[in-house]
Structures are given as structure tokens and as C-alpha cells.
Amino acid sequence: MTRIERTLAAIACGVLLAAPVAADEQVRVHPDLVYGQGLVGGEQATERPLLMDWYEPLAATDELRPAVILAFGGSFVRGSKGDEHFTENGAQDSSMADYCRAFARQGFNCFSIEYRLAGERPVLAKPVAADRLMPESLAVTPQTTARIDIARQAIGLPPMDDAARAEFWQALLSASEDMEAAVNHVRGNAVQYGVDPERLALGGFSAGAITAINTAYGRHVPVKAVVSLSGSTWGYLLQGNLPAQPPALLQLVGQEDLSGVIRGSGAVARVLDSVGASRQQAWVPGFGHFYPMGAVSLGDDFSKLSVEQRVVGFLREQLKSE
């Protein structure tokens, strides 16, 4: 059966169960599961399946496991849910596949999702109320999208014009719509995945971290925790629009990270702190926007842990059984 035939079969039954792959003796990977449908194509929009990879811990347990849903980075124009890495100034990041394998070895079900990108001209299934969003005219300008042009250049695209910025705005918003669909899918199929539906966390890197923040704090999708790896605030207005019980947040940024990421992380921190929400932060010294999960991170409590250790510890604390 071809991939197209598998996808059509998945649409018919709701979930695509591709042949699992043994990542190692501790983790089984179920690639290309369909978690929802997304509109693409602009005015002539059609649906396309949205896929994710499930990393299943193999250690025996009689309990439903906590779960983490992750989104990749790539400026909303590129990226992969799999083993794609970005390199800059000699530093290489860890992929979402790397993080999912690490989390699954620690007993978490982990789902690495794809989401619609700007080049697909995504269309929201349901409009977002204007008072929940930053004004598009201010959020997407030549100045605010300058970094996006670098990512576009890397994949052979020209600099953004007004039409491309409008498409980018839709991609920025549709990504969190897709992550919400992933949460609903995992929660709705919790028994199949061996997941405790009340112990879910979201996370991601860069654009994926922005998406996780928008999903949890902007769209009010109920989860227990959010992990932001060099994320920011963009798209949704958080001030005055947080959910009644904001989930706990862990923020990491590189010492020489993008100025927008550092400023945006500070803005998110101030909003959460203003309502007394649980929040932790750490720097990754010696790195810019890209850093591996084995890199040392320094917390504001004077702790010194690898990025992986810090995230796993945070998830264990926030997703523990009541």
C-alpha cells in the first residue's frame, strides 16, 4: 500500500497505525499517525491529514502514563517532526525526535506533531476573536518578520511581501489550532495510547514553543504544563486573556539567543508572574538559538542541569499522579 493509500485508509478509520519501529530496547516508535485534518490552499481550501509520531515507552506498567506533545521549530516555514537538525555558528540543536526518545525512556508517552506551514496557505477552521489576538498590522511587519526571511532564504524562497506576510499570519495561528487538535486526539484516544488524559504537557522549540504557548495560554487548551525551548509570545494576546488556571511553564533560552526570543520570553514571564502562575526559567550558557539537550542550563535557583535533565525534572513534578 502506498503512503497515499495509507493516508486515505487513515481518514476512513480516524487513526493511521503504521508499522511500529523499535527506536531501542526501551522505546517503540509509531510513525505517521493521523491526528486530525487541516485546511490548506487559501481560498480554494481543501483538507489534508495532520500526522504525528508516537514514542511509546516499553517498560511494563499497570498505570496510564503522562504524555508530552511536542512541536518542531523552523519559523513556521520549514521543519520536521522527525530527526531534522538545525545548525548555526557550529552549534546544532536536538530534534523533536531526540527529545521524544529521551522522554519515552523516562516513562512519558511522547508525540511529535507536524503542523501546517506558511507555504501551504493554511486556513483556520474557526476564526479567532479579534480581541484575543495581537493586531495583524503590528504583529507581522517587515521588521518583525526579518528573521523569517532568513529561514525562507534557506529553503530557496524570496523575501516576504505583503501577501506572504498574510499567509504567514495564518500559519502562525493555524499551528496552535493543529496542536489543539492533537491534544483532543490524544485525550480522546487515551486508552489506546496508554495515556492519562489529565496528565498532558505541551512543548516545542522556537516556532514550536510559540505554538505551545499560544495553545495553552492563548487558546486555553487545558494541559498541566508547558515547556518553551527558545519560545516567545506572538499572535495571541496573553495579558488579560490567560485561562483561569494557567498551566506551569518552563522557559529556556540560549545566552546569545535571538533578541526577540529573549524579549518575548520576558514578556510571557511577566504576564504569568502577574497572576501568580507557576513558572521556572533557565539560561543555556555559551549557545545562541540552537543548543543540544545535553547542554548545561543554569536556573535562577542556582541549579546546574542539562537541558534534558531540567525538562524531565519539570515534567515529573508537574505530571505526577495526584
Q: How would you characterize the overall build of this protein?
A:
The chain starts with a helix and ends with a helix. The protein is 33% helix and 26% strand. It has one domain (3-318): Alpha/Beta hydrolase fold, catalytic domain (Rossmann fold, 3-Layer(aba) Sandwich). The chain is globular, with a radius of gyration of 18 Å. It is of the alpha/beta class and 322 residues long. Helix 5 packs across helix 7.
What's the SSE blueprint?
Elements: H1 3-13, E1 21-24, E2 27-40, E3 46-57, E4 65-71, E5 87-88, E6 91-92, H2 96-105, E7 109-113, E8 122-123, H3 136-139, H4 146-154, H5 162-188, H6 190-193, E9 195-205, H7 207-218, E10 225-229, E11 248-254, H8 259-274, E12 279-284, E13 296-299, E14 304-306, H9 307-318
Parallel strand pairs: 4-7, 4-9, 9-10, 10-11, 11-12
Antiparallel strand pairs: 1-2, 2-3, 2-8, 3-7, 5-6, 12-13, 13-14
